[in-house]
TrEMBL record:
Gene3D superfamilies the UniProt entry points to: Aldehyde oxidase/xanthine dehydrogenase, a/b hammerhead, Aldehyde oxidase/xanthine dehydrogenase, molybdopterin binding domain
Keyword annotations from UniProtKB, A to Z: Molybdenum, Oxidoreductase
InterPro entries per UniProt: Ald_Oxase/Xan_DH_a/b, Ald_Oxase/Xan_DH_a/b_sf, Ald_Oxase/xanthine_DH-like, AldOxase/xan_DH_MoCoBD1, AldOxase/xan_DH_MoCoBD2, AldOxase/xan_DH_Mopterin-bd_sf
Record's protein name: Xanthine dehydrogenase YagR molybdenum-binding subunit
Species assigned in the record: Azospirillum rugosum
Amino acid sequence: VAQAVMKKAAELAPDSLMPGGRPDPLIRRQHGHIGKPVSRVDGPLKVRGAAPFAAEVALDGMAYAALAYSTIAKGRIAAIDTAAAEAAPGVVLVMTHRNAPRLNPPPRFLSGDKAAAGDDSPIMQDDRVRWNGEPVALVLAETQEQADHARSLIRIAYEEEPAATSLATVSQAAGGCEVGTFMGEPLRAVVGDADAALAAAAHKVEVVYRTPGHNHNAIEPHAATLAWRGDELFVHDATQAVAHTAWSMAQIFGLEESQVHVTSPFVGGGFGAKGLWQHQVLAAAAARLAGRPVRIALSREGVYRIVGGRSPTEQRVALGADADGRLTAIIHRGVTPKTRHSPMPEPFILPTQSAYASETIALEVQTCYLDMVANTFMRAPGEAVGTVALECAMDELAEQLGLDPIELRIRNEPDKDPISGRPFSSRNIVAAYRAGAERFGWDRRSPTPRARREGEWLVGMGCATATYPYHRMPGGAARITLDADGRARVDVAAHEMGMGTATAQAQVAADRLGLPLEAVTVRYGDSSLPGVILAGGSQQTASVGLSVMMAHQELVGELLKLAGNDSPLAGLRAEEVESADAGLRKLDEPGRFESYASILGRAGRSELAAEGSAPMPLETMHWSMHSHGAMFCEVRVNAVTGETRVSRFLGSFDCGRILNPKTAASQFRGGIIMGLGLALMEETQFDERKGRIMNRTLADYHLPVHRDVPEIDVIWTDIPDPHAPMGARGIGEIGITGTGAAVANAIYNATGRRVRDFPITLDKLL
Ligand code: MOS
């Protein structure tokens, strides 16, 4: 319904997507706080250990929770013996499906505006087991160690049923697959007859790329510390969705939304996984049974068992081109598993939707059900692994054509969105490639594989395109409160997961309000604050920035009313003034000015607050909006051991206006580092016999450490997007996209080996 409403509204008002039909003044402002490399306002708290994380909040009388996880993939609990656990030292309570309170099903993410659950399985409500690792018991004890020990004493007998745990088996069975959906839309697109065009193409590549499952590994594992006070629930959570979590917990426990309070001032990384999973619900249920506050902090294994990750994919990309290297066919099809309780399969065709011009296009994600932990959002779901297949295939085609891979991409640059036909709001991939190629020294790359050797090391370079869509979800709102000293506070239900939210938004608010940066504070991470804002889809900055713009507009109106007839501003309308120098002034008559402090002072007010809501995200109905990038990688592959070392990496981005170069560079680098892990290390080891994830710790799930990460150079076009608030598109997820392909293409250039099965571990290069 929301989509239909938006489409209708877009038809009615095609040119006035920004509030009031005017462009955001911050898109063009040159000499403000935006664009300055301001250090993180929360930096001092973090380095002093004074930033409170969810598992560090101490509540009086708190008990500690430990979870027991099922060891079968499907079946039922035939018997469960908790006697030894209940008798163990310090144990307060053992909760299983037999004594857990009755709970409503968790609202599955995307099923409603505030639904937060990554999985909508009933939570400890019956004897059924739905995946290997599902929580089957919770122990509460006086200490974490006592809870962990007692949990080990629980004995469970299962009646096992045949489970679907092999992607190959299920996907090859007749009727085993169906077209997947993402955000309610089928993961399928057809332009012309791509199979016929491929058959007739002068040049073609047809390749299959495989990516494994990935587990989430935020530096802070999931945790919550919570307490009931009467019928009100107070949750200190690690979440990227405070308002969604509060509403969803209220649904589950049959409460009013106002009875649940979620705070989450600091989150040690989210990447899509810090939503509502079973642990918060089980902890709240146990707290109610025991009548005590509870802390639940998942172990690394706990995250792997109950928090979804990225599912494996098998992707076939076929590209047809004419003699000039112009694409005549793009086919990107493949298969990935899903579960009956997760809202999404891994949507790996997403990046291909707007990548290249081609006469024909055929995209499709086939999905099949497995009995496993839910697939969920993991940094650039779809694009992260979709660009692996697409951008490696482009490299393979370039080689066949004898074309430079950058030139091939430039030749196929689309002038409008090839699927939707919408114009691009702003697209400067070519500029990003040119700037990147020059800075990286692309002209020193030999097109011939294995051409450069330094001792044992084969050296090569590769590139790939990065891409991630601009999103803005409905529900953004913010409040600005001015005080009598002319200071401002922005209140918004936003999140700080390490990206510098408060810092960037303080810059934005200071520029909107005409205040020095020191005069603005941003309060966030609390479900009682305005807005239903997800720190996801790389959209938080746009959502908050536009909400602040709307709150500012309201504030200006209130200030003019308050200023009254004795003010130099008397008689002016909101459209006639702007914020500057800590006050309001007439647009074309700067002499007519009054400071905020003066307006409030004359009115005898200690503060003035105004709230604004972001309008529906109509901009995405009119324009194809995407962040872009050109990734450059140099690798050294050891000819003796097969070990790959990434020796240089450059990300050249086109993401609209960059609000804070310091925090933005960290976002880009962080994404690229995650992409290096995807390329070379990360792999969920899934035992298809038992449907069990075999990795349990970072000792057997490998991530890049400092020694694996070279100096990463990042540059950007800084070309404002005229259709995005502040001219800025998202920067959080794009860094992981294109990176895997840039590494793989560099490895090919170094070694002459195409490894199409990720991660590219040394055994595959020997
Ligand atoms: Mo992101 S995967 O939308 O947190």
